[in-house]
Amino acid sequence: MIPDDLEVIDFNRRLKSWYLENHRPLPWRETKDPYKIWLSEVILQQTRVAQGMPYYERFVEQYPTVFDLAAADERDVLRLWQGLGYYSRARNMHFTARQVANDHNGRFPETSEKLLKLKGLGQYTAAAIASFAFDEPVPAIDGNVYRVMARIFGIESDMLSNEGKKEFAAVARQLVSKDDPATYNQAMIEFGALQCVPASPNCMACIFKDSCFAYEHQMQGQLPVKIKKLTIKHRFLNYIIIRQGDRLVMHERRGRDIWKGLYDFLLIESKAPATNPDSLTILDPNFQNFLKKGRLTEVPKVYSHILTHQRLQVRFWWLEIPETERIDLPHGMAFYNHEEVEELPKPILIDTVLREENYL
DNA sequence: TAGACGTGGGA
DNA sequence: TTCCCAAGTCT
Asked: Might you give the EC number(s) for this enzyme (predicted)?
């Protein structure tokens, strides 16, 4: 199971030659700039290359250096991030940019140990940056690498458990090339992404088919072992889009719920689908007040939005307030004109609805 | 430390 | 439709 030194040398030689012939030319691989490498790594956390690529291009364009990102408003950073998901990545990235700019003269720490102290950088990302930008011989273990190691070396422990992670890390430390850790880590990741894919890998075309544990035992479908218990919560969200002229009432989401830092509308959450708005007045006294001042129209379509741990069923109502009415908004809520609404960071669901309703 | 955190794509 | 997955991290 644990490879000996000779096996490690052979493995590295084969892997590197595969990488040199087969890797994709990705922009963040053309640079040693730790800032750009960091941007790409954060963007790619739990994200496919195809999905992250346009965001990477836009961030580099908009914020060419860590100082540019540090100088930006968090709101604008979130807006540029809109649609990528896991928005804490954007908030942490912005925080870290300011820290690097202000406390480190714009220079990123050069070891994985120090990088690990920065917000938004865990074991994987710290190792990735340390090896890619500074050639530190540390293994960067992401989902691809877990899969490659589990299959080739037959590691059957749960990659999501702490003991499992330790076992993988121990093997990974043996494997990582001391001469060229940057290429080694890129190669492991790329090999997992292109050849040793999660579903139906083409093992006939694999350079390791003569020595792969999973192939030998036909366990490609069982490895790696991931034991996850995921409970899906169903929620019913009812949004009142208060509108006066071209202005909408929006507010920034705070607290521990989803979409923190993003903007949405007056939200009334119910325990069951709310078919008539009257039932919502009981749940929200503010709504009752607004209702008297305007005209309510329902958006007929019911939206379903799926998150990792939640399944959202969402309804929208427009509440049109005549220009002559003056209304008091609850704390944190404000009117935003058309241009401002466009510029605000919003959950993709909100953006979609505003487009489908021909507001944006 | 187990659970939470987005979105889109493919089988 | 439903499920799983995708360059993980935070609390």
From this structure: 3.2.2.31
Phi/psi at A109 (5° precision): -55, 150
Contact A8, A175 (CB under 8 A): yes
CB A128, CB A41: distance < 8 Å? yes
In whole angstroms, how large is the CA radius of gyration of chain A?
A: 25
The percentage of chain A sitting over the pLDDT mark of 90, rounded to a whole number, equals 89
Sketch out chain A's domains with CATH numbers.
5-216 (1.10.340.30), 233-356 (3.90.79.10)
Say which nucleotide is closest to residue A233, CA to C1' distance. B4
Cα–Cα distance measured from residue A192 to residue A326, given in angstroms and rounded to the nearest whole number:
59
**Residue partners of A223: CB distance under 8 A and separation at least 6:** A147, A150, A151, A154, A155, A156, A213, A214
CB A132 within 8 A of CB A186: yes
**What is the tens place of the pLDDT at every residue in A151-182?**
999 999 999 988 899 999 999 999 999 999 99
Q: Which of residues 212-251 of A touch strand C (CB under 7 A)?
A: 226, 230
Q: Which nucleotides of C are covered by protein (CB under 7 A)?
A: 4-10
Compute the distance between CA of residue A178 and CA of residue A180 in angstroms, rounded to an integer.
6
Element (H, E) at A317: strand A310-320
How confident is the model over A198-240, as pLDDT tens digits? 999 999 999 999 999 999 999 999 999 998 878 899 999 999 9
